[in-house]
Specification:
- There is one protein chain.
- With 102 residues, the protein is an alpha+beta fold.
- It folds into two domains: 50 residues, CBS domain Like (Alpha-Beta Complex); 33 residues, no CATH class.
- It is 54% helix and 13% strand.
- The protein has four helices and three strands, in the order E-H-E-E-H-H-H.
- A three-stranded mixed beta sheet has the order 1-2-3.
- Helix 1 packs across helix 2 and helix 2 packs parallel to helix 3.
- The longest helix is centred in the C-terminal third of the chain and has 23 residues.
- 1% of the residues are buried.
- This is CBS domain-containing protein.
């Protein structure tokens, strides 16, 4: 019987998933359990599916898309500042918090 079983839970973080994948190169599938205390088996997930999931969420393309989203948001904010949008009161709190951070 295996004593130190490597597993995932529904609450596993991306960091835990990454650690699991990097430390267990030979495993091709991982048990998915309800929680560590009960260890009720919900199913298993293949290594390939986990790698794809991790890449979609925190891979290069996902990080680049998030960067572009943030830059667009920043540009929209600066355009609103230049147009005087903060003077009408709609963005006063937001403008104050941003100017305070500068």
């Amino acid at each position: 019987m295996v004593k130190n079983v490597k597993f995932l839970t529904k609450q596993s973080t991306y960091y835990e998933l990454q650690e699991l994948l990097t430390t267990t190169h030979k495993l091709m599938a991982y048990p998915l359990v309800d929680d560590p205390s009960s260890m009720i088996l919900l199913g298993s997930v293949s290594r390939e599916n986990l790698l794809c999931l991790l890449n979609q969420i925190v891979g290069d393309e996902a990080r680049h898309a998030e960067y572009l989203r943030r830059m667009q948001s920043k540009n929209q904010f600066h355009e609103a500042m230049e147009d005087g949008a903060c003077k009408d009161g709609s963005l006063v709190k937001y403008c104050f918090s941003i100017s305070y951070l500068k």
